[in-house]
Every structure is written in structure tokens, then in C-alpha cells.
């Protein structure tokens, strides 16, 4: 969520320009929600990859087993986390007035 809030702050001027030329509230929200979900899914890909590589090692005689449902669960949790923590920054970006966003420096 913090990363998305920083992204909104850094791109305030871009948001103002998009709103000034006619972007709807849903367009702005969609842009930031997609960005948040993609960011969290990228994290899931890296996490699952590290988990799969790590499961190839035997630790103190114990051989880890990866259940296929856990991989899908990891992606599902990442998707929900991206949506949940992306909603507030997306709404904050969409609620900016174009004139205030264009003045922002």
C-alpha cells in the first residue's frame, strides 16, 4: 500500500492531465488497481519460484513436498492482497481535482 501511495504522489501531475483531457474516475481507479495487482503477482511469481527451488533441497533428512494447490493459493492470496491494498491509493488518485493535480509540484 505504501508503494502505491508513493506512486500516486509521484504521478499527481499525470493524473491531473489525464483527468483534464477526460479520463473518468473508473479509468484512474482501473489504472492503479491493475498496477497494484501486477506488482503483487510479480511478487508471487518470485516467491513461488524461490519456494520451488528451495523445495529441491533436503534439510536434516526431510524432503519437502510442494502441493499443487499451495501454488494456486499463493497466487490467489497475492491477487487479493493487490486488490485490497490497491483500493485506497486508487480512490485517492481518482478523487484528485484536475486543477489541484496540475498545480502540484
Architecture overview:
- The chain is mainly α and 105 residues long.
- It has one domain (2-103).
- It is built from five helices and no strands.
- The chain is elongated, with a radius of gyration of 19 Å.
- The two termini are 22 Å apart.
Key attributes of the depicted protein:
mainly alpha, 105 residues, 5 helices, single chain, 77% helix, elongated
Radius of gyration: 19 Å
Which stretches of 5+ consecutive residues score pLDDT under 50?
none
**How many E-type strands?**
0
Spell out the helices and strands N to C: HHHHH
Count of helix runs: 5
Cα-to-Cα separation, first versus last residue: 22 Å
Number of domains: 1
Beta-sheet strand percentage?
Answer: under 5%
Globally, the shape reads elongated
The pLDDT mean sits at 88
Question: What level of helicity do the residues show?
Answer: over 70%
Helix/strand/pairing class, anyone?
Answer: mainly alpha
Reported for the largest beta sheet, the result is: none
In short:
The model has no long low-confidence stretch (mean pLDDT about 90). The radius of gyration is 19 Å and the shape is elongated.
Tell me the layout of helices and strands:
Blueprint (H helix, E strand, L loop, with lengths): L1 H9 L1 H9 L4 H30 L13 H27 L3 H6 L2
Amino acid at each position: 500500500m505504501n508503494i502505491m501511495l508513493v506512486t500516486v504522489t509521484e504521478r499527481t501531475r499525470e493524473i491531473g492531465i489525464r483527468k483534464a483531457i477526460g479520463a473518468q474516475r473508473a479509468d484512474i481507479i482501473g489504472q492503479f488497481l491493475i498496477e497494484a495487482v501486477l506488482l503483487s503477482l510479480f511478487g508471487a511469481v518470485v516467491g513461488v519460484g524461490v519456494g520451488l527451488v528451495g523445495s529441491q533441497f533436503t534439510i536434516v533428512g526431510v524432503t519437502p513436498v510442494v502441493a499443487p494447490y499451495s501454488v494456486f493459493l499463493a497466487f490467489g492470496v497475492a491477487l487479493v492482497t493487490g486488490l485490497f491494498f490497491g483500493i485506497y491509493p486508487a480512490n485517492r488518485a481518482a478523487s484528485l481535482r484536475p486543477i489541484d493535480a496540475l498545480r502540484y509540484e
